[in-house]
Design a protein that fits this description.
Distance between the termini: 54 Å
InterPro entries: Pectin_lyase_fold/virulence
Protein name: Twin-arginine translocation signal domain-containing protein
Largest sheet: 16 strands, parallel, barrel
Radius of gyration: 25 Å
Structural class: mainly beta
Low-confidence stretches: 1-35
Length: 476
């Protein structure tokens, strides 16, 4: 067996730079011999194995690689896959507390290395990997080929204490309904409070069966096992049968940075603030697009979105509060019925949330923003919705609640600041506040075809509100 062993160490230059310059200008330079810098502790050796040359895997997809994979799984090991197809025929249940294990494709594209599966019989799914312990697992630069049939599906469950990374991985082929697949394609949990694990450039964009809730399959799920931080960076999830990602039960946090979430049924983004002792969840720089009349090239005749929300703020009854949505775009060009572009439903029992520097384009009759009544027995304070520097435009001619922004019962302390609402068509109101106290609209323009503001048994203060701005926005 041809083994290549690499020794990875911390850079001494980096350690020295971190320690340099600690004296203040008034301190005297010591004359005694300075203490030696600490010697970096080397990381463990990483044994790197070529899947074909070293391990004898078949890169043509004809012979199973299952037994070889099970045999090589262990600490401080990386398996590198040359371009080709590698056949998986059963679940790999790896709950062994392993540290530092990697599966890495060597292709120029992540599509050069594909894991393939035999055609699935009715009701059969392939859980490619089930890793529920350990740390610092890396899955990188390969694809999972589900094919375009209506039964073959494959998923991954990766739960690490710290340092997990899934990067440049794509699910190819059509995702079936949950009769032939599990509820999601990727479960990804960080199982220690101080841990940080990363999902980067994961793609799910080749379409799915769209049976309507609750039978569609979601993309990424962060579960109640997750108590640390999960970062989700620059992912593209499109046209799945349910949520592109969901983190509602988690006691840890999910931090989404960038990414495109388009035409996913049920909801394109579903998140809570989490219950971490020092961190809160956020979504920054992401784009949501719903254009139900223009599904992508992977759609089949009869495929139709049932009820696509843009963002659902939801803690599934846990009462979390404080999630941040920042620098995001929400674009609704065409849509079937939906609870809303941005919603915080009562059943989710979520407290307050903040949206900052976001743009919403609504060309449909879908409710633009709906902050539903708060269950004050469950949801933690603060309960208010803060909209700061929000632009709402579009060609919509009506709203289910009459106004684009709805602040409902007990959303006390809600504020709309430095924002602009421009909806000149049909009869569309601006802001409705219902049975909530200490709410305000400040330094904001509301140029709409219906009443700019309405309140029902509510306290609504207007401060420097104008009614003429047209809210310029970027072209698509």
């Amino acid at each position: 067996m041809k083994r290549r062993t690499y020794l990875r160490t911390l850079g001494a230059v980096g350690v020295g730079a971190a320690l340099a310059g600690c004296n203040t200008p008034d301190e005297e330079t010591p004359t005694e011999t300075p203490m030696a810098e600490p010697t970096p502790t080397p990381e463990p050796e990483l044994t790197v194995l070529d899947a074909v040359d070293d391990l004898g895997m078949d890169p043509t997809g004809q012979e199973s690689v299952d037994d070889i994979l099970d045999g090589v799984y262990g600490d401080d090991t990386a398996v590198e896959f040359p371009p080709g197809d590698y056949l998986i025929t059963r679940e790999h249940d790896w709950d062994r507390g392993v540290s530092n294990f990697q599966l890495v494709g060597l292709g120029d594209s992540h599509k050069d290395v594909q894991f393939v599966f035999p055609p699935a019989g009715p009701g059969e799914q392939f859980r490619m990997l089930r890793i529920t312990s350990g740390d610092h697992h890396v899955l990188k630069n390969f694809s999972i080929q589900q094919t375009d049939d209506d039964t073959t599906s494959a998923d991954i469950w990766l739960a690490n204490d710290d340092g997990a990374l899934i990067e440049d991985v794509e699910w190819l082929g059509r995702t079936p309904t949950d009769n032939h697949a599990r509820d999601q394609l990727l479960i990804f949990d960080c199982t220690s409070v101080d841990g940080v694990s990363v999902i980067r450039r994961v793609y799910m964009r080749e379409g799915a069966a769209l049976p309507g809730y609750p039978n569609g399959v979601a993309g990424i799920r962060i579960t109640e096992r997750s108590v640390g931080e999960v970062r989700m960076i620059d992912c593209h999830i499109e046209q799945l049968g349910s949520s592109s990602f969901r983190a509602t039960h988690t006691r840890g946090v999910l931090r989404v940075e960038g990414g495109l979430f388009k035409n996913n049924d049920n909801t394109n983004m579903r998140i809570s603030a989490g219950d971490h002792p020092t961190k809160t969840s956020w979504i920054k720089g992401a784009t949501v697009i719903v254009d139900a009349d223009n599904l992508n090239e992977h759609a089949r005749e009869g495929d139709r979105l049932d009820s696509p929300e843009g963002l659902r703020i939801d803690s599934t009854g846990h009462g979390y509060t404080g999630v941040l949505i920042e620098d995001c775009d929400f674009v609704y060009r065409s849509s079937t019925s939906s609870p809303g572009i941005i919603t915080a439903p009562t059943y989710g029992s979520h407290g307050g949330f903040t949206m900052r520097n976001c743009r919403i384009v609504n060309d449909t009759g879908v409710q633009t923003i709906y902050a539903g009544p708060v269950d004050t027995d469950i949801a933690r304070e603060p309960w208010g919705m803060i909209l700061e520097n929000i632009t709402i435009t579009g060609a919509c001619e009506s709203q289910p609640y009459g106004s684009a922004v709805v602040v409902d019962e007990n959303r006390n302390g809600s504020r709309i600041v430095d924002s602009c609402i421009y909806l000149p068509n049909g009869r569309v109101g601006g802001v409705l506040v219902n049975r909530a106290s200490n709410c305000s609209v400040e330094h904001t323009s509301i140029n709409v075809s219906g009443p700019p503001t309405r309140s029902r048994d509510a306290e609504l203060v207007l401060d420097d509100v104008s009614y003429t701005a047209t809210c310029a926005f970027r072209d698509e």
